[in-house]
Amino acid sequence: MIRGFDGWQIPRRRRDALPLASLLPYLMCGRAANFEPLHLLDDGALGFALEFDAPVVDTGIAAEDATSDLIDQTLRTLPAGVYWQWFARSTSFVEPQLALYMTQAGGDPIARACTTHYVQRWRAAQRDGFFPEDHAINFFPRSQSILVALKSPPLRVPRARLDMLFHDTDRADTVVLGFIEAASNLQAAMSAQGIHTTAVGADHLANWVADLLFPWPCFDHPPVSTGLHSVPQNVASLGRNHPV
Predict the structure, then answer these.
(1) How confident is the model at residue 13 (pLDDT cuts 50, 70, 90)?
(2) Considering just the CA atoms, what is the radius of gyration of the chain in Å?
(3) What confidence tens digit (pLDDT) does each residue in 92-144 have?
(4) Contact between 186 and 208 (Cβ < 8 Å)
(5) How far apart are alpha carbons 107 and 66 in whole angstroms?
(6) Section 75-97 average pLDDT
(7) Are 17 and 23 in contact (CB under 8 A)?
(8) 25-91+143-200 CATH pick, 3.40.50, 2.30.29, 2.60.40, 3.30.300
(9) How sure is the predictor about 69, in pLDDT bands with cuts at 50, 70 and 90?
(10) C-alpha to C-alpha distance for 38 and 167, rounded to whole angstroms
(11) Residues 75, 54: Cα–Cα separation, whole Å
(12) Cβ 193 vs Cβ 47: under 8 Å
């Protein structure tokens, strides 16, 4: 006979009740040794990330080989102890592309009217698809991007002094300098291949994580701004993810 079976679930319930935002490892974002943006992580390491549009490899000539060579070359530049992760993201949110399209409507009244109509249709399709009344043929706009995140070895700095790292921006130890060199090499390798990258700062990171956790609200709320708050605090302010 099993007694108190319900009690076995208490630790799991408490764990599941934690908001996901509280598990995010980002403490603060700043500048060190005249390089930014760097992210201080809760395990005493540094992080750096770049985001760029996914390369078109299915129609470009030798595009797959070029992308493979890029990954190989940049991987070889990473110093010992520096790790990276690649995150491929696909979303129906295409508002930045639509905003750019609106700036190219032209001066002709008919062209502007057509542009406005197309943009309205695409904006509605982000959430509902182009043919929401017919699920057999319905499809959504699609935007794809890749985020490459680097992580340094733990810094040789007492945890109580980690927050001072971004205050003394001209001095840094060998771990920090080696990591900054790795981040700079990654940027240079991408640029050499004609890939436009965006360094991920605090606001960018907060919105990137928030859109992953809350994909539908991204159509309704303006981009979040961290200000004086941390990335986890801003993500937590958008809502709560309930366990499935």
Answers:
(1) very low
(2) 22
(3) 888 888 888 888 867 788 888 888 889 999 999 988 899 999 999 999 998 88
(4) no
(5) 39
(6) 86
(7) no
(8) 3.30.300
(9) confident
(10) 13
(11) 18
(12) no
- Distance of alpha carbon 148 from the chain centroid: 9
- What are the pLDDT digits (tens) for 208-235? 888 877 776 566 667 777 775 678 777 7
- Rounded-to-integer distance, Cα 134 and Cα 242, Å: 31
Mutual angle of helices 63-77 and 174-192, in 10-degree steps? 160
Instruction: Identify whether the C-beta of residue 184 lies closer than 8 Å to the C-beta of residue 213.
Output: no
Tell me the domain boundaries of the chain: 25-91+143-200, 93-141
* Residue 9: predicted pLDDT: 47
Residue pair 60/68 in contact (Cβ under 8 Å)? The answer is: no
Measured CA distances, 114 to 28, 124, 126, 132, 143 (Å): 45, 16, 19, 22, 22
